[in-house]
């Protein structure tokens, strides 16, 4: 199966950060990933450009998200797909 593209990782992490950062279940994750999430949002919105450092932050944050949700990377398109997969 195809893994999630870098652009979609940034999109998903940005969606999590902008829409759910105040939700109780996400507070610890958001606090721990205080750089990766806003960087992902900024990249997804076209505010900043892709660099090797940015890739590292976003990929590490993505890996932590999947680990925390106990999901394998099967190629996700948006945050809701992750939630739906976790609820299966």
Short description:
This protein is mainly alpha-helical. It has helices at residues 6-20, 27-32, 36-44, 52-69, 79-87.
Describe this structure in words.
The chain has 88 residues and is mainly alpha-helical. The protein has one domain. The chain has helices spanning 6-20, 27-32, 36-44, 52-69, 79-87. The longest helix has 18 residues, at 52-69.
Secondary structure layout:
Blueprint: H1 6-20, H2 27-32, H3 36-44, H4 52-69, H5 79-87
Key features of this structure:
about 90 residues; mainly alpha; 5 helices
Q: What's the overall geometry?
A: globular
Overall pLDDT, averaged?
A: 96
- The radius of gyration computed from the alpha-carbon positions, rounded to a whole number of angstroms, is 12 Å
How many individual β-strands? 0
Q: What is the share of helical residues?
A: 55-70%
- The secondary-structure class comes to mainly alpha
Largest sheet, strands/sense/barrel:
none
Whole-number total of structural domains: 1
Assembly status: single chain
Q: Low-confidence parts, pLDDT < 50 over ≥5 residues?
A: none
């Amino acid at each position: 199966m195809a893994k999630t593209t870098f652009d979609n990782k940034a999109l998903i992490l940005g969606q999590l950060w902008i829409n759910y950062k105040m939700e109780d279940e996400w507070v610890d994750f958001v606090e721990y990933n205080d750089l990766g999430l806003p960087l992902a949002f900024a990249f997804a919105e076209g505010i900043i450009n892709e660099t090797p450092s940015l890739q590292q932050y976003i990929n590490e944050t993505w890996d932590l998200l999947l680990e925390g949700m106990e999901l394998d990377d099967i190629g996700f398109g948006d945050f809701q797909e992750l939630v739906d997969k976790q609820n299966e």
